[in-house]
Amino acid sequence: MGRIAGKVVLITGVARGQGRAHAVRLAEEGADIVGVDVLEDIASNEYPLASRADLDETVRLVEKLGRRIAVRQADVRDRGTLAEAVAEAVAEQGGRLDAVIAQAGICPLGRPRGDGQAFLDAVSVDFNGVVNAVDVALPYLVDGGSIICTGSVAGLLSGKTDNPALGPGGIGYSLAKRTVASFVHDLSLVLAPRSIRVNAIHPTNCNTEMLNSDVMYRQFRPDLAHPTRDDALRAFPAMNAMPVGYVEPADIAAMALFLVSDESRYVTGMQMRVDAGAYVKNRPQRPAF
Fold first, then answer.
1. Active-site residue identified among 47, 140, 173, 246
2. 34, 84 in Cβ contact below 8 A?
């Protein structure tokens, strides 16, 4: 307990899923939270996004742990609104940040070919939204702080979400997540003189509302007209080396805790894969000779 006592952490996409798991796990270890979420659906994204009730539940869970949480509604695609929301919430928490977790994301798979909006929405949320979150947080971030960006192991592998059969949203998702990896690599060098670490976490399938949706079931079981979760469960493990179909949000939050804590004070520019071996299974290392 208390590994990050007194730290203040900004989390985007905080209302549910991985964002909520981050907020609760960090609060368990003594952090106070600044959180934002869009709380509105995006038309090209066929599963519903978080609601006000979801955000209220995150607030309840953090406060139950005796920690403070300041939340605002904001769309990470809108830098101006996001900057205003973060400024207000950071002020409530004392005017500084020790870390930012740019984790808000969507995965608009299955849209028809030619749906440029699905492609653009994926890029705008999953990459532009990450840059916007880091941008608006940086003025408050202390020297020695931590920036964590959420990528995806699927975005690091060819033939996964970039498969044209999954639609333009999948191609946009892969582009965004690949670019997040590059962004983290280069930003870590830029901010190293301030001892600010910059790292990415790349999950495999994660047991959130994104994975547990009809649109995802159809992508995993295209052989069925109306696949259920039970049908999709048979296909979920295909990408992973370990015999699991998905990891839990708590598994991602455990990595985030390490990267927020001073235990990672010299860890920067890393692509931290919490992926049950998906990357090594699908991109095996060639022999040195």
1. 173
2. no
